[in-house]
Amino acid sequence: MDIGVLSAITFLPLAGAVVIILLPRDMKKTARWLAFGFSLAVLVLAIWLWFQFQTCEPSEAGYCFEEQTTWFGMINANWHVGVDGLSVPLVLLTALLTPLAVLISFEIEDRVHMYMSLFLMLEMGMMGVFVSLDLIIFFIFWEIGLVPMYFLINIWGSANKEYASFKFFIYTMGGSLGLLLSIQLIGLTTGTFDIPTLAGIWPDFTPEGGTLFGLGIETIKTITFWAFFVAFAIKVPIWPFHTWLPDAHTEAPTAGSMILAGVLLKLGAYGFLRLVLPFFPEQAARFAGTIGVLAVLAIIMGALASFGQTDFKRLVAYSSVNHMGFVVLGIAAAAYVYGGRGGDSQSAIMALNGAVLQMFNHGLSAAAMFLLVGALYHKAHTRDLTRFGGVWVIAPVYGGILLFSSMASLGLPGLNGFVSEYMVVQGAWPIFTLYTALAMIGLFFTGAYILKGIQKVLHGPVKDEWKGHNLEIEVREVVAIAPLLVLMLVIGVWPNWLVSVINQAVSRLLGA
Amino acid sequence: MTTQELLTWLIPIPPLVAFFLIVLFTARSRALSTLLAVGSMVISAVLGFSVFFIGISTEHLGAHPIESAIDWLSVGAEAIKIGVVVDPLTVIMLFMVPLTATSIFVYSIGYMAADPRYSRFFAFISLFAGAMLTLVVADNLLLLFIGWEIMGLCSYLLIGFWFEKRSAYRAAVKAFLTTRVGDVLMLLGIAYLYSATGTLNFHEVLRNPEMLESLAAPSIYLGGGISTAGLIGLLLFAGTVGKSAQFPLHVWLPDAMEGPTPVSAMIHAATMVSAGVYMVIRMYPLLSIGAEPHEGIFSPPMLAMGLIGAFTALFSATIAVAQNDIKRVLAYSTISQLGYMVAALGIGAYIAAAFHLITHAIFKALLFMGSGSVIHGMEHGEHHAHHEGHHMPEGFNPQDMRFMGGLRKKQPITFWTFLIGGMALSGFPVVTAGFWSKDEIIADALQQTQMGHGLGVFVFVMLVAAAFLTAFYTMRQIGMTFFGKPRSAAAEHATESVWTMTAPLVVLAFFALVTGFVGVHPDFPILGAILSPGESSPFHEFVGGTLLEHPEALPFNPTAVATSVVVALGGLALGWWVYVVRGYKEATQPDPVQGVLGGWLYSILVNKYYFDELYEAIFIKPAEWFAEKVAYLFIDRGIIDGILHGIGRIAIWIGYLFRSFNTEVVDGVGDGIPMGIGEFGAWFREIQTGKIQQYLLMALVSIIVIGAIFWFGG
User: Fold this and answer.
1) How many Cα neighbours within 13 Å face the side chain of A92?
2) Residue A218: CB partners within 8 Å, gap ≥ 6?
3) CB contact, 8 Å: B688 with chain A?
4) Which end of chain B, N or C, is more open, meaning fewer C-beta atoms within 10 Å of its C-beta?
């Protein structure tokens, strides 16, 4: 059997992890560069994939680069992978962020081998989720991603790392138990775990006699819908399932936060797109209003909570709640239309295009912001906003980059965040007018917390505490953040290279 | 793409490129940065003027504008396009923006010469100019909004340019957030417009009678009590209220004077705040759907504009009377003049609003740069005086007019150009541009008044009163600054500024005089026949072409002209008498106005009606309190985490039961699920010593328990 590009992208990191863990203990440098090399190789493959994807003829179900091999025949689970316009940007994002995060991790001195191995395993887990087209495989990768992140926080995290890693792990794990049960239920009743197949049959599925375990099929579908929902909602996270996030993000090592915010949160949103919308169009539409309310609460309360912080990293962490709220709002609006509750499909496409682009954009800006917070913390050993001030005077390059990234995060037009937020607002307006209008409160406070962060760190006279300190960003850090900055600008000025790819898949999904 | 289209696309590009080049490569070299910034601005200006001349020499440009657009965002089978357009309204902006911006760039070479962040300054104003030019050539609201917001960023960066100063960074944040209130509402307006029409392109919406008619239908929101266009218009106008500092979002503009003076000139007078008015002028056909101003029927956005604009015009003029900071006086006068334009639009005076937009931008840029030159002179004077052993009096500030006086002899070029600017602002009859544009607004308001329309009466009364005050405080400013004897050693030793600063003053002074002559009414005695041979003035003829229906010119009204002349000269004369003839003798002397108004009324004016304090108390403090105490500590930390920890405890308790079961029933199995119930932190640290399997077990158990509770409880 030939190894397809998707299998290669998924398992190359695992190969790297194995190689690194087998290295002699004293070869720290080699371990670092190997990790960087492997993740870079994945990036090269992902870029190749991206360009090949532009010209590929999708299969009937809409996927490219599909591979299908029997894997666990007894339960009819297959190694079925493939990508479409929803997953290929996320594959690219993951492949891009991992080497940058590895580069940032060069400052780790403690147990480097293990760290780097875990990091590559994490990449495998994330890639696996994005490429898998089989529920069992999907779930396995979904869980695999958890373990390395748990250890990354638990071992290399900061002061309150134990509480944070535990909360993260148990919470996400707890959420996925319902997911596992539901997957089994769906698989056993239909006899397949194949996602494209299920997308075709599950929405209209009726078992013989119309009942399962004595319950009506509608009840079963509603229960499984909520099980899926809770699992993904915790991961996104949707308000009020979000409180693990500020803790985990704040305590994780810099690179961990970058990946956590940059990619892991997208797994949840991706779950909605890949599984919830196609499998549960009716249920999703019925509860779209509720989800929309939660999204707006995330946008508003996330922004407010962020504004209320005095810890720089926690401020940035809460911004994820705020930004991911727009993703959920877009998904909710699209779900409402897709399930036939009204609204025009053009708006639904706009909202969902925006949501997917927002996932990508948030990946860039959140990673950049965490990198910058980490860069400062690494030198100043504090994240307390009240202790900073005047950093722009002693670290002008750092200041400029922080401003740029902050503006991308704020949604300044001309940079990437605006495009996706505008699309979500534009698409959601005719569908959930009131929610969209209320979301503006959150958008206003996005400005407030971003400016608060900038002001507390950069503005004012240099505090005595920092006189004579070198807080300027290092070359390695600049190299790591540069690709993110470039992409922020490119997407902001010319978004259609990315949006047109997303648009294809979204249009197909929403059946326009 | 035709050459004209290409030229238009290129207009905003050079300064944007210069911004990135300076930031990335030349920040360390002042000479290169200057070359890049000024050079790129000159290129843009040349491009802009070329298109300007092409535009004014094109017949029926309004009906056949220069247009070009590309796909920007794919949506299903369609796409949102962005592009450029040149119609008469764009053309006049392509005269004003490059002219003022180039002057300001040149002026900044001198003004910023001593600043250590010189290159950074030029980078920021380059970005600013690029954004403004983008806004001007944009063919749709989305691209306009992009330029609009980037200018907001530049404003933030430049107000906070001296970011070590508390007052500076606070003013910067205040400006950004205050305007953002308007911006988020404007974004909704954009979203609503697109979902109602399927396009954001100006011409597809505004020159399409069917589209306009469909927008006149009752809105599907708010119970249909307002038309679609009315609601969209109000949302868009909210953006203008923020950007153009109209009441009640006016509070940011005076504080914006914390930035370097060229910034005040450019952003907070000539261009950025004008962008707010430009947008509503641009969208006027939409805002005025359903209105018949001559019948006294106004659309909701017009009512809002008329009321807010006229109120703001007078309101901020009263504050300007009591300010002693030379730039703050100008800041309030800017708010007031923008109020004129907004009010003019409210009563349907489209051409007059556009006309005043152009003339005001020119003379206000001139005045701000003039005040910068004065401040520069005072700072030099302070420096010199210090060398000679003079001490500055208590509370000295080089921007405080009470410490100036007699500068006309020290700074003759600054004085004469400032005088011209001040006269234009006051509407000094016939020879200044401000007279013609302001007169046109007053004539429109008078016509409304004579027809007995309530809104017209209100606008007329407010604007005439404001015009009187404008002339008065302008003369006060000129008197306190340039006449009398120097009231401090700094003023005594003040010197004229360098040529890079004075040359732009002279250029703008020239245009502050002559620009008005394109808008003279054909029936104006003598001048009308010479300057406006057609049925209406050339400006009216040309800009009117932007609209689908060419607006009718008003009949010549001598009463309006007489009103304009009387209030302008009256205000100037009173100011002359109080501040020049009787004069300010010493810096510590109380202001004559204070004696007339009485102490408490005067201190209300000095304190700007206490709006800063009011907003602090009812918006800012509660928001900060809510964010930290409620959103974070109470809801997230208290309620949500409280519930989670509660669940955790239950799980632990069940784990404990299991353990008992293990140790007592199945003896020896399991090596210790952690014990210790009690303080959350305490058990927590212990639980950390456990193993993953145990965590999983706990999770599973808790899920089952919760599930059971729901199952049986529900």
Assistant:
1) 25
2) none
3) yes
4) C
Nearest-Cα distance to chain B for A69, in Å, is 31
pTM of the full predicted structure?
A: 0.91
Residue B706 vs residue A287, higher pLDDT = A287
Question: Which residue of B150, B195, B637 is in closest CB contact with A347?
Answer: B195
Indicate the residue type of B469.
Answer: L
Q: What is the C-alpha to C-alpha distance for residues A483 and B714, in angstroms, rounded to an integer?
A: 52
Q: Does B25 touch chain A (CB under 8 A)?
A: no
Within B493-649, strands assigned E span none
Tell me whether B166 touches chain A (CB under 8 Å).
yes
Cα B247 to Cα A415, A476, B77, B251, B332: the distances in Å are 30, 49, 43, 8, 12
Q: How far apart are CA B240 and CA B185, in angstroms?
A: 10
Question: Rg of the Cα trace of chain A?
Answer: 22
Peptide bond just before A240 cis, omega within 30 deg? yes
Residue B649: half-sphere exposure toward Cβ, Cα within 13 Å: 12
Which helix (H) or strand (E) covers residue B657, if one does? helix B641-660
Q: Which among A13, A450, A497, A85 is positioned nearest to B153, based on CA atoms? A: A450
Q: Residues near B67 by Cβ (< 8 Å), separated by ≥ 6? A: B5, B83, B84, B85, B86, B139, B203
Could you tell me if B524 lies within 8 Å of chain A, comparing CB atoms?
no
Phi, psi (rounded to 5 degrees) for A258: -60, -45
Distance, in Å, from the CA atom of B187 to the CA atom of B145, rounded to the nearest integer, reads: 8
Closest to A123 in 3D by CA, of A42, A3, A6: A42
As a whole number of angstroms, the distance between CA B491 and CA B393 comes to: 12
pLDDT at site B706: 56
Q: Is the ipTM of this complex over 0.90?
A: yes
Burial class (CB in 10 A: 0-12, 13-18, 19+), A491: buried
Q: Work out whether strand A77-83 and strand A215-216 pair parallel, antiparallel, or are unpaired.
A: unpaired
Q: Which pLDDT belongs to residue B674? A: 38
Residues 6+ apart with CB under 8 A from A269: A232, A236, A324, A327, A328, A331, A355, A359
Question: Which of A169, A422, A494 lies at the smallest CB-CB distance from B695?
Answer: A169
In whole angstroms, give the CA distance from residue B658 to residue B650. Answer: 12
Shortest Cα distance, chain A CAs vs residue B339, angstroms: 25
Question: Distance between CA B582 and CA B603 in Å, rounded?
Answer: 23
B78 close contact with A: CB closer than 8 A: yes
In 3D, which of B425, B468, B467, B449 has the Cα closest to residue B557? B449
Q: How far apart are CA A126 and CA A5, in angstroms?
A: 16
pLDDT of residue B14: 95
Instruction: With beta carbons under 8 A apart, name residues in chain B contacting A167.
Output: 644
Contact of B483 with B580, CB cutoff 8 Å: yes
Dig out the tokens for B481 from the structure: 């600054």
Does any CB of chain A come closer than 8 Å to the CB of residue B177?
A: yes
* A373 to chain B, closest Cα gap in Å: 20
pLDDT band at residue B358, thresholds of 50, 70 and 90? very high
- Return the sign of the alpha-carbon dihedral for residues B682, B687, B688, B690: positive
φ, ψ for residue B416, nearest 5 deg: -65, -40
> What is the number of other CB atoms lying within 10 angstroms of the CB of residue A144?
17
d(CA B569, CA B563): 10
What is the longest distance spanned by two Cα atoms in chain A?
78
Lowest mean pLDDT among A90-104, B93-107, B617-631: B617-631
Contact B72 A174 (CB under 8 A): no
Coil, strand or helix at B297: strand
Element (H, E) at B659: helix B641-660
